[in-house]
Structures are given as C-alpha cells and as structure tokens.
Amino acid sequence: MSNDLLTIIDQDGKTQKGKDPGLPKDELQRLYRLMVATRLLDERGLAMQRQGRIGFYLQSTGQEASHLGAAYALADRDWLFPAYRQPGILLLRDISIDKIVSEWLGNSGDTSKGRQMPVHYSFREANFVSISSPIGTQLTHAAGAGMAARIRGDDTVFMTFCGDGGTSSNDFHTGLNFAGVTKAPVVFVCENNGWAISVPQCKQTASESMAIKAQAYGMPGVRVDGNDILAVYRVCKEAVDRARRGDGPTLVETVTYRMASHSSSDDAARYRDATEYEAWKKKDPIARFQLYLKQRKLWDETFEAEVVETAKAKLAEGVKLAEARANLGPESLFDDVFMNLTPQLKAQRQELAELMSKGGVGADVGHFPL
Amino acid sequence: MTATETKTGTSKAGTKVMTLLEAITDALRHEMKQDDRVLVFGEDVGKKGGVFGATLGLQDEFGEQRCFDSPLSECGIIGTGIGMALYGMRPVAEIQFLDFIYPAFDQIVSEAAKMRYRSGGEYTCPMVIRSPYGGGIRGGHYHSQSSEAYFCHTPGLKVVIPSTPADAKGLLIASIRDEDPVMFLEPKALYRHAKGEVPLGEHVVPLGKARIARDGTDVTILCYGAMVPVCLAAAETAAQAGRSIEVIDLRTLVPLDEATVLESVKKTGRCVIVYEAPKTCGYGAELSAIVGERCIEYLEGPIVRVAGFDTPFPYTLEHLYMPDQKRVLAGIEKTFVW
Ligand SMILES: Cc1ncc(C[n+]2csc(CCOP(=O)(O)OP(=O)(O)O)c2C)c(N)n1
Ligand SMILES: [Mg+2]
Fold first, then answer.
1. ipTM value for the complex
2. Maximum Cα–Cα distance for chain B, whole Å?
3. Exposed, middle or buried: residue B50 (CB in 10 Å: 0-12, 13-18, 19+)?
C-alpha cells in the first residue's frame, strides 16, 4: 500500500500498460522543455555563484520530474506553498528568467526587494507564496489556506512541498493533522531525495517510508518514483482531483535523489558515497522522459537542439536584463516592516541618511558562509 | 547533585594559535575527554562536523554514542537534551543557526529555564545550547539574527557570547560545567576571522566576569560578540583624534558583570552601547537602564545606543544594517555633542 512505489516509465522509456496518463503530445513536449530549462537554469545559478555574481545558490538537479510533475497537476488558480528546491514551478507558471535572476541579485527587479537570500522566491502573480528558510513552516500555512477555502466554498487546491528532513519538523505533524481533521484541500508533496544536508533518511525516520506517515493523520499516502514525471503527475492529479472534490488531503512521497551538494556552500563528497550518486545518475529524470518521448516519436536530435537552444537563449537574455537592473536604495531598508513607517522607523531612516551623507557607512559583510 | 562552584583556571600546558571555531572544537574535545557525560548532538554535527565545522572530528574520536546527528527538529534536539540532562548527562546541543531555534522556544523558555525553580531545586537542567548567531556573512534574515534578548529576558537561562578564541574555549568549558542551562551564542562572523593564542588543556573562564578589551578614560563602550572588534577598531581611530576609549567585552550577558560596567562608566562619565540586534528592547536597552539607574550622577553626556535598525535582518542592504566603525564613532561623538 503506502510503501509500494509507482513507476510508469521504465529505464528503457517504455510505459506500463494502462498507466500512461495520456497527456496530449504538445503538452508532453512542453513538460520536456520545462525540465531542460529548469536544469539549465540551475546550472547557470551555480555558475553565477561560483563566479561571484550572486551570493548563494541551491540546485534542484535530479528533482525536475518530482516538482514539475507535481505542480503540473494543478490548475492555474491553485496555490503553491513551496520549499526552496522547486524552481521549475516558476517556469511552469511563466515567471520570466529576468525576474528569477533579479531575485538572485536582490535588485530593483526582485519582487521581494532584495530582502532574502537567493532562491527564496515570492511571486503573487503565480500564486507562489513567499519561501521561508525555516524548514516545514509552509506546511501549516497550506493547511490553513485550505481550511479557509473550504469555509469560503472555493474549489481552490493548495500544494505544498517539503523534503525528507522536513518530515521531522513540528509543522509536518501539525500541518497534516489539521488538514486531516478539517479535510482541507491540500496536496502535501514530500520530495524524498535521501538526504537532509548530511543526514541520510535512515537517521531522519524509522518509518518504512514517508508516505506511510499519512496513515496516522487519516489521509492517503502515496509513494511514487520521483524521477518519472508521468508517474508523479498521475499520482498528484489524483490527489488534486480528490482535494477539489472535497475529499480531503493526500501525502505524496516522491522518491528521488539530490544529485548536487545541498547548496553552493556544501560539499557532499565529505559525507556521501559516490556509488550512490552513480546509481542515481542512471535514473536521470530528463534522460528517462527523453527515452519515452523518443519511443513515441516526439523527440529527435533536431528537437533536442531546438529545446536547448531556445532555453539557453532565454536564459542569456534574462540574465542580461536582470544584471542591468539597478540596485535598491538604502531607504528601501525600512519599507514593508509595516504597511506604514512608524515614527521610530522614519527617524532611523533619517539617521541612516544623515550618516551616509557624512561620508558613507558600510560594514564589511563577508560571504555565505564564511 | 550539590551546587559546587565551578573551578576556574588555566593549565600550564602552553598555548596555540587558533581561530574562534577551532577553539570551540578544542573545548568540546577537552570536555568530552574528561567527562563521559558530555554528549554533542544536533543537525549535521556527526560526519559533516557541523555546517561551520565546529564539531569536526568529534564523531571519529568519540563514536556515534557521544557525537551524533539528530533528525531535523530543534524542538526534538532541545527537548531530548533536557531529558538527557535530567537523567544526569551533560548535553551540548547544537542549533545550526540561531534563526532556527524558534521551534524549540517552548522547550527552552518553559522547560529548561524553569526546571530548577518549578521543582524547588529537585530537578535541574545543566545543558548547553550552542548556536551561531549574528550577521556579517550575507545570510539574509534566516542566517543572521541576533536574538539574544529573548533569552536574556527569560529568568533561569544564562547567556554567554565570546569574542576571542581563548574566551570561546574558556567560557564554553565553564558553560558545560555549569549546573544551569546556558545559551552559548557564537559570533559566526568571527569563526574564522578571530585568531589568537589559546591555552592548551584546561582553560576555564568564569561566567559573569567581563573583560576590559581596551583601557581608556574618556568614553566607555559596552559590547559583546562580533561587535567587539568593530568597537576596538573605532577606539583606535578615536585615539588618533585624541579620544581615549575604554572597550568592555561583556562575555556573559546573564549574569552580567555590573561591577566592571559601573566602575568603567563612573571613571569615563560617558557610555556607548553597541549591539547588532534591532535597537528596540535589545540587550543594550537593559544596559542603558542599568547605567542610568546606577550612575547617572557620573554621566557627562547621554547614554548612546548604536544598534541594528528595527527592521528584519536584510539581505542586499546588510552592510548598512550592521553597526560599523563609522556608526560607532558617530555614537562616541554624540556623547560629547548632543
Ligand atoms: C528549522 C530549520 N532547521 C535547520 C535548518 C537548516 N537546514 C536547511 S536545509 C536543511 C536540510 C533540509 O533537508 P530536507 O528537508 O530533506 O530538504 P532538501 O534540502 O533535501 O531538499 C537544514 C537542516 C533550517 N533551514 N530550518
Ligand atoms: Mg532531503
């Protein structure tokens, strides 16, 4: 039951009979484009961090099927309460590269005004709620938003993400418990990539799986091959439909692997076995989907070249636009603490302006982490 | 357990130049060696040795029973730590960043801090909660906060913040040997930047004793943690302009060494308080009140606070948020011209 792993596309790109969700051809190709674009975006992010153009980056390489397949099951009006490893969703929801890279830079094109570290996006236009660093906090928010939608009689669905580490947080328990009790229309997606920084799954939980935890909260738990985009989509579509029907939440565990180090500050070689990485490399979600498309005559070298070229061109253009944007001025430091500046904040803004006019202040602030 | 005074002192084993981070590892190793009740645990402290490397090598040396990774739950780390302490161990729990401590807030303020008092001294909670705090690494608001004031405001918790490698070692050892819960906050901006001679072997710096980091006669600066080197640099600049600045590194916020603070302010007649937390209700407000209450008749100018602004910790504008030398110098001038 909760411990079975649903796979649709096998290693050779063939699908199991009767399980293909039957997406239209152009949609399948669109999903492939999104996966490739997400990977390239990620590579660019890390490269820019290494070049010192941005301060921090966190990759999702290897998890493209897991988060894209899940979010693809939503309608545009549905909301996302993401963690920090689902950048493909931004592309799926048509957020421009310019805006994404502006967030990394924290410049005047950044919707969150340079207030957060890179990859902690906030895009209200895409119903993509501001990402927080503290692990798990979004899970209860999704439950609460779902409760509110039920009270209002809306049919909006809420999808929220966490990692395997996130299942140990207080909010995981509370979020699932509240959603279960209230039948909130929420899909909890746990992207189980095997690691929480250096802590392996076996030290995170004694449960046989993450999906099985759903039983305790009175909701279905489904375990799916997170490197198989059709399987993830199929499972999440069922969960989304269920939520929309008013039948309550689902916990989906996507079994995948964190191919990169935890972030640009981490070196996984210090605690992880290379053989594990090699084994997962063979299960690459993009390669697998490519094989499937090839079987269905939806992929060939010409298509590949066009997909990569288009994505790269968009990236180059977006990075250029973003890097040309102005930085935010010092006065913006005091905005958005409240709707209106308090008298104290006004005085502090004035104090800073005076100090700066007298020859500039500016502490030496190093790099993340030291 | 009887309440014994922690013995203080330094062995004659010589010294070695260490970073503040290395001094912390050295203290942990020293205590783990000499007391098998000492346990080190938290997220990523085992094989990885902590995200900053403070526990590097400890699992190899002492085994997985003594140094281990916890599941990702601060509430769990502190709650189980309290259980271990109640059962007679000496837990040293690491919270990866102070910004992530809030899921454990209940365990800290309602449980650890109140255990001795609420049980009439029957049960106690001798544990250390180590955590990197503060800005200076471009970590945004979830890797930069200085939330020491929440803990100082909680009776039953001691709050310790070192600023030099030698103090980091000596104060951590004293904290581990203390019979009460100690928040041991490590200025992450100084982890690798602060370097200095550290006594090898036994080295205990008593809690509740401030350090005069620089002697002076015109103005007293009260500071702690990562603001200490900033204030020392400002004092040096001020000296060139003929101002003699005394810099006091508090080392322990709770219990505070009031005697040293008051003696210095009575001598100089001027007081600047520097901290990187938001200004309002920060620890500096308490210091200002103490100075105002206890020696206002000695003051020749206003008590001045130089602190973070009352905003969440920013990302791109961090350099403007953090008090720097210029802001400290401006603060010094305000005690003369107001
Ligand atoms: C409450 C809290 N504690 C600690 C951290 C530091 N931290 C950041 S990511 C991480 C591991 C998360 O692992 P997981 O949930 O599996 O997600 P993944 O990074 O693998 O996607 C930790 C411990 C944090 N962000 N929040
Ligand atoms: Mg993980």
1. 0.95
2. 60
3. buried
Whether residue B312 and residue A115 make contact (CB cut-off 8 A), yes or no, is yes
Domain assignment present for residue B319? The answer is yes
User: Is the per-residue pLDDT at B5 higher than 70?
Assistant: no
Please check the confidence at residue B2 and state whether its pLDDT lies above 50: no
Let me know if residue B1 belongs to a domain: no
For residue range B64-101, list pLDDT tens digits in order.
999 999 999 999 999 999 999 999 999 999 999 999 99
Domain end: B144, B165, B199, which one? B199
**Which two three-digit tokens encode residue A193?**
């990539």
Domain co-membership, B224 together with B265: yes
| Test the A interface: residue of B19, B70, B72, B227 with most A CBs within 10 Å | B72
Concatenated DSSP letters of B253-316 = EES--HHHHHHHHHHHS-EEEEEEEESTTSHHHHHHHHHHHHHGGG-SS--EEEEE-SS---ST
Residue of minimum CA distance from atom 3 in ligand 1 = B100
Q: Look at residues B179, B199, B219 and tell me which one is the last residue of a structural domain.
A: B199
Beta strand B245-249 with B211-214 is antiparallel
> What is the average pLDDT value for chain A, to the nearest integer?
96
Average pLDDT of chain B to the nearest whole number: 96
Using the 8-state DSSP alphabet, how is residue B32 labeled? H
Q: How far apart are CA B173 and CA B176, in angstroms?
A: 5
Same domain, B60 and B125: yes
CATH code where residue B283 lies: 3.40.50.920
Residue A327: pLDDT band (50, 70, 90) is very high
Pocket of ligand 1 (CB under 6 A): A 85, 133-135, 162-166, 193, 195-197, 258, 262; B 43, 72, 74, 96, 100, 103
- Provide the domain limits for residue B321: 211-334
Helices (H), A282-368: 285-295, 301-323, 343-357
- Same domain membership, residue B34 and residue B89: yes
Sequence-ordered list of residues with C-beta below 8 angstroms from that of A360, at least 6 positions apart, any chain: B326
10 Å CB burial of residue A200 (0-12, 13-18, 19+) is middle
Q: Is the residue at B206 inside a domain? A: no
Task: Report the predicted TM-score, pTM, of the whole model to 2 decimal places.
Answer: 0.96
A291: number of Cβ within 10 Å:
17
Percentage of residues in chain A with pLDDT exceeding 70? Answer: 98
Residues B216 and B317 in one domain: yes
From chain B, the residues in CB contact with A359 under 8 A are 326
Residue B28 lies in a domain: yes
Question: How many whole angstroms from A87 Cα to the centroid of ligand 1?
Answer: 17
Q: Which fold has domain A5-323?
A: Rossmann fold (3.40.50)
Alpha-carbon separation of residue B252 from B108, B209, B212 (angstroms): 18, 7, 13
Domain of B52, CATH number, reads: 3.40.50.970
Same domain, B84 and B192: yes
User: A60 with A258: CB under 8 angstroms?
Assistant: no
Q: Looking at the CA of A260, name the nearest ligand.
A: 1
Shortest Cα–Cα distance, A106 to chain B (Å): 6
| Residues A299-324, mean pLDDT to the nearest whole number | 98
Interface size between A and B, measured as CB pairs under 8 A: 165
Residue in A120, A204, A348 closest to B310 by CB: A348
How many domains does chain B fold into? Answer: 2
Smallest CA–CA distance, residue B58 to chain A, in Å, is 14
B136 and B279, same domain (yes or no): no
For chain A, the domains span 5-323, 329-370
